[in-house]
Design goal:
This is Glycosyl transferase family 1 domain-containing protein. This protein is mainly alpha-helical and 106 residues long. It has helices spanning 2-8, 38-53, 60-73, 77-92; strands at 14-16, 31-33. It has two domains: 2-75, no CATH class; 76-106, no CATH class.
């Protein structure tokens, strides 16, 4: 998840969302390009570089960085663990704890 790692690090992010990124990519947190739009990608990279070089990160770039950091914060290990446990409970039904290693937890 390099885009989320970049967002968490406070970077301006641009590129293809890779289809899986459609879960987190938004117009607010990056400059996202359609799959195969190589010219668009080159323009997005140039735009990010210009924002950083010209000091414009105080405006549009800073807003995108802040939005990216908020997005990345929603993808915590705790959230992943909770969602995974919820999914397994839904799949396995009321006897979900029979499938756990170690002592049963309810």
């Amino acid at each position: 998840m390099p885009p989320l790692e970049a967002m968490a690090s406070g970077c301006l992010v641009c590129g293809f969302d890779g289809h899986g990124g459609s879960d987190f990519a938004s117009a607010d947190n990056g400059l996202w390009i359609a799959e195969g739009d190589h010219d668009g990608y080159a323009h997005a990279v140039a735009r990010c570089l210009a924002m950083a070089q010209d000091g414009r990160t105080d405006t549009e770039g800073q807003r995108r960085i802040a939005a990216g950091q908020l997005t990345a914060a929603a993808y915590s290990r705790e959230r992943f663990d909770a969602e995974l446990q919820t999914a397994w409970r839904a799949l396995l039904g009321p006897d979900w704890d029979e499938y756990q290693a170690g002592p049963a937890r309810r």
